[in-house]
């Protein structure tokens, strides 16, 4: 599987972090938002929440109080990216990282 050309190195790292087991607790919101903007459409609503359209899936995320997202947001992001087929991309990227 080829890596998506529209993802830079930071996007790739963030995607792998989202799919890591055990769940990473150091996934920064700004990196997630950048990844979401690179892979889908992000609309910041008037209430400060972010509506994300990725492939056929749509979800809403709230900016965390700190710099890192919480475990539930990681779970929600995994589901969103899996529905859009990015779970295979993440698996490929993680396998590549283990080969280096």
Number of β-strand runs: 3
Low-confidence parts = none
Report strand order across the widest sheet: 1-2-3
The averaged pLDDT comes out at: 90
Helix content: 40-55%
Structural class estimated from helices and strands: alpha+beta
* Count of the separate structural domains: 1
The major pleated sheet works out as: 3 strands, antiparallel
Proportion of strand residues: 15-25%
- Radius of gyration, in angstroms, nearest whole number: 13 Å
Number of helical segments with 4 or more residues: 4
Shape: globular
Order of helices and strands: HHEEEHH
User: Distance between the terminal alpha carbons, to the nearest Å?
Assistant: 17 Å
- Give the assembly state of these chains: single chain
Give a structural overview.
It is a single chain. With 100 residues, the protein is of the alpha+beta class. The protein has one domain. The protein contains four helices and three strands; from the N terminus they run H-H-E-E-E-H-H. The chain has helices spanning 9-19, 29-39, 71-83, 86-99, and strands spanning 41-44, 49-54, 57-62. Strands 1-2-3 form a three-stranded antiparallel sheet, with helices on one face. A hairpin with a 4-residue loop joins strand 1 and strand 2. Helix 1 crosses helix 2 (29-39) and helix 1 (9-19) crosses helix 4 (86-99). The chain is globular and about 40 Å long. It starts with 8 loop residues before the first helix and ends with a helix. The model has no long low-confidence stretch (mean pLDDT 90).
């Amino acid at each position: 599987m080829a890596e998506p050309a529209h993802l830079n190195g930071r996007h790739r790292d963030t995607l792998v972090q989202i799919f890591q087991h055990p769940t990473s607790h150091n996934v920064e919101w700004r990196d997630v938002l950048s990844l979401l903007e690179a892979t889908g459409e992000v609309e910041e609503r008037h209430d400060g929440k972010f509506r994300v359209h990725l492939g056929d899936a749509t979800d809403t995320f709230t900016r965390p109080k700190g710099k890192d997202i919480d475990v539930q947001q990681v779970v929600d992001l995994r589901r969103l990216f899996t529905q859009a087929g990015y779970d295979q991309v993440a698996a490929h990227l993680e396998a590549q990282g283990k080969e280096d």
